Amino acid sequence: MNIQHSRELYKEAKSHIVGGVNSPSRAFKGVSGGTPVFMEKGEGAYLYDVDGNTYIDYIGGYGPIITGHAHPHITRAITEAAQAGVLYGTPTSLENQFAKKLKDAIPSLEKVRFVNSGTEAVMTTIRVARAYTGRNKIIKFAGCYHGHSDLVLVAAGSGPATLGSPDSAGVTHNIAEEVITVPFNDIDSYKQALDAYGDDIAAVLVEPIVGNFGIVEPEPGFLETVNQMTHDAGALVIYDEVITAFRFHYGAAQDILGVHPDLTAMGKIIGGGLPIGAYGGSVKIMEEIAPLGPAYQAGTMAGNPASMKAGIACLEVLEDQGVYDKLEVLGKKLEDGLAKIADDTQVPVQINRKVGALTLYFSSREVKNYDDAEATNSEQFSTFFHSLLEQGIHLAPSKFEAWFLTTAHTEEDITATLKAAEIAFRAVKSR
Ligand code: PMP
Question: Which NCBIfam families would you find in this protein's record (predicted)?
């Protein structure tokens, strides 16, 4: 595949933009390098690059693009928003309409706030939990990414009940000491952490279905026990549903799982592809926030009309249950096809899938936590990734990311993907 123009643009990008990219994972570091492909158009399930190549897209914008690129209903909403002026710095009825729509879909949200990213949403839920409880520390699960605010950039996989150390330069040890990291799906470690630090814990931060070391579901009873133990310790439960809200059904993962947090952070899908974040919870807790309470959070762009309109339009598309039924059918076809080819080519893999989100791990060991995910074969993933890319199938460039299906993908797209995967698996086998 000729990607000459992408090569030139990447070279130029590196002279203007740090590392040539505005978000590190785009730089192909997770797949042994290579040239990131520069896109100029997305339509439906496809991305079109600057050299005239077409790709079946499984990045899905890292999650938000569940209805496919340039969905007509969302595009119309964004165009209307642009024509009406994009920012007033005053309230609009769109904010009311969207807040109500979110509340109707996710019953644990009695009050919400809109922000501009998942990072902001999570960061603020932690602040609110600290304000509400008057405590400082949080517990998070190893390998779970919650955005790039200081507190959650803490080393993963550090073993049960250990205090965190910073994962990024510029995050101080003092901050990292406020975070305790425990393995996902490991209730004994969680109990140890609470026993050791319970009185200081403001909240536990949970991806109820993990999306950031691949798709990993909670073991039966895990979330229920975490909720119970956390509340017994006088702390709050925060669900980071930035990936999971509206990903698997019309609503949040908490309602599929039947376990409810005190606070929920969202982003990605709810913006229909425009920048957004939102958080919410019970009236009692949310009233900690300014202007009603002492916890401060604000934003020039928060609740801007374009993101509101795009988000409302996206949810309008998703209200049709047929959308999720289709994602399930496509997801199953992809999963079954990949499993069969892996078996035929004798490449050991694990496939974790929930509806239209799937992770293919190169490993013979089940993946239930970050250590399992980390132990999967990175070289094999890189070979597989580059072979698919060369054949016009674009996965996210990391073994820890999910493949995101959209409602624009067709059975033919899956068939084409599986055909390419046969070649990719053979490339993995012959290395
Ligand atoms: N939480 C989760 C679970 C995420 O996956 C992400 C982004 N990948 C974030 C928070 C941060 O969201 P954003 O990139 O919009 O700041």
Answer: hemL, PRK00062.1, PRK12389.1
Kindly report the CATH number assigned to the domain that includes residue 236. Answer: 3.40.640.10
| Same domain for 392 and 306 | no
In a shared domain, residues 63 and 100: no
HEC secondary structure over the chain? CCCHHHHHHHHHHHHHCHHHCCCHHHHCHHHCCCCCCCEEEEEECEEEECCCCEEEECCHHHCCCCCCECCHHHHHHHHHHHHCCCCCCCCCHHHHHHHHHHHHHCCCCCEEEEECCHHHHHHHHHHHHHHHHCCCEEEEECCCCCCCCHHHCECCCCCCCEECCECCCCCCHHHHCCEEEECCCCHHHHHHHHHHHHHHEEEEEECCCECECECECCCCCHHHHHHHHHHHCCCEEEEECCCCCCCCCCCCHHHHHCCCCCEEEEEHHHHCCCCCEEEEECHHHHCCECCCCCECCCCCCCCCHHHHHHHHHHHHHHCCCHHHHHHHHHHHHHHHHHHHHHHHCCCCCEEEEECCEEEEECCCCCCCCHHHHHCCCHHHHHHHHHHHHHCCEECCCCCCCCEECCCCCCHHHHHHHHHHHHHHHHHHHCC
Whether residue 301 is found in the same domain as residue 352:
no
Tens of pLDDT, residue by residue over 185-236, are 999 999 999 999 989 999 999 999 999 999 999 999 999 999 999 999 999 9
Ligand 1: which atom is nearest the Cα of residue 62? 8
Cα 399 to ligand 1 centre (Å) = 17
Verify whether ligand 1 is closer than 6 Å to residue 124 (CB atom). Answer: no
- How far, in Å, from the CA of 140 to the mean position of ligand 1? 14
Taking the CA of residue 241 as reference, the ligand 1 atom at the shortest distance is: 3
Of 268, 297, 318, the domain-final residue: 318
Q: Is 167 noted as a catalytic residue in this protein?
A: no
Would you say the ipTM is above 0.90? yes
* The total number of structural domains that make up the chain: 2
Looking at per-residue pLDDT, the higher value among 368 and 165 belongs to 368
Q: Domain check: are 298 and 364 in the same one?
A: no
Say what the pLDDT of residue 164 is.
63
Q: According to the model, what pLDDT value does residue 163 have?
A: 58
Do residues 92 and 119 both lie within one domain? yes
**Domain coverage including residue 213:** 72-318
332 in active site: no
Query: Which of 23, 145, 207, 270 has most ligand 1 atoms within 8 Å of its beta carbon, as the pocket-test mutant?
Result: 145
Of ligand 1's atoms, which has the minimum distance to the CA of residue 119?
16
Stretch 43-72: mean pLDDT: 98
pTM above 0.80, yes or no: yes
pLDDT value at 159 more than 90: no
> Measured in angstroms, how far is the CA atom of residue 404 from the centroid of ligand 1?
15
Q: Which of 240, 371, 372, 413 is catalytic?
A: 240
Catalytic residue among 140, 268, 333, 368: 268
Q: Is 240 a catalytic residue?
A: yes
pLDDT digits (tens, 9 = 90+) for 88-136: 999 999 999 999 999 999 999 999 999 999 999 999 999 999 999 999 9
